[in-house]
Specification:
265 residues, alpha/beta, TIM Barrel, eight-stranded parallel β-sheet, 8 strands, globular
Length: 265
């Protein structure tokens, strides 16, 4: 069993309300000793911080507004995020970015919210936790203006191709890989890109309760993903990168500690 860190799990999601402690114990039993809880709104970011405080050294949080909620961001939201950014449990600003696939918020609102959160991150020592879907050109153009002002970042839940991955690597970003890599229908481009992913830039995540690996044999009821599934993602990544799973596990732990300034266990 390998010691792993899940860099992105939505543990404040209501699907975990009835058995959150069981989920955390199951993750620990699977070797997932630390988890970063994703904040997608001001409220969920506050909830992520509160949950993290209950498990110091084991749970951490991000603070941000997902592009789906970009139209909701205002000065009070930004003030709240700025306050959260000073909390020791908050290790990144985000989830922030652009999503032109769903367009739940207008694109101009997404660009504005993304820029404001990048500005917020530039005033902290926190990296950015990034979301991008079908918006690569606008995403990289805006982000490039801030890369020399922020403390790095990760392309969370990367699902793109080799060219997109290279662009992010050239910008200095880490690449977060989920169970999308296990999807025989949609994951082909990602599996190909992973072959060229440097060992010192790969991170692992589940994005629980979403993105349950399609090739998981014993699927949980309700198809809810959870952090204990991360070893399955590890093995898929190791296969694509043609490296031993223990090497990937060690590298992703070191990479996560480096990017998010986590103390080594």
């Amino acid at each position: 069993m390998h010691e792993l860190i899940d860099i992105g799990a939505n543990l404040t999601h209501d699907s975990f309300d009835k058995d959150r402690q069981v989920i955390l114990q199951r993750a620990n039993d699977a070797g997932v000793t630390r988890i970063i809880i994703t904040g997608t709104t001001l409220e969920s970011s506050q909830d992520a911080v509160q949950l993290s405080r209950s498990y110091p050294g084991r749970l951490y949080a991000t603070a941000g507004v997902h592009p789906h909620h970009a139209a909701e961001i205002n000065e009070d939201t930004l003030t709240g995020l700025q306050e959260l950014a000073t909390d020791p449990s908050v290790v990144a600003i985000g989830e922030c970015g652009l999503d032109y696939f769903r367009n739940y918020s207008p694109r101009d609102a997404q660009l504005d919210a993304f820029e404001k959160q990048l500005t917020l991150a530039s005033g902290t020592d926190k990296p950015v936790f990034l979301h991008q879907r079908d918006a690569h050109d606008d995403f990289t153009a805006l982000l490039d203006n801030f890369m020399d002002q922020i403390s790095g970042g990760v392309a969370h839940c990367f699902t793109g191709n080799r060219d997109e991955m290279k662009a992010y690597l050239d910008m200095g970003l880490y690449i977060g890989i989920t169970g999308w890599i296990c999807d025989e229908r949609r994951g082909e481009a990602l599996r190909d890109a992973a072959r060229y992913l440097p060992l010192d830039r790969v991170l692992l995540e589940t994005d629980a309760p979403y993105l349950l690996p399609r090739d998981l044999k014993d699927k949980p009821s309700g198809r809810r993903n959870e952090p204990s599934v991360l070893p399955h993602v590890l093995n898929a990544v190791a296969s694509c990168m043609n490296k031993p799973a223990e090497d990937i596990a060690a590298a992703t732990t070191q990479n996560t500690e480096r990017l998010f300034c986590l103390p080594a266990l």
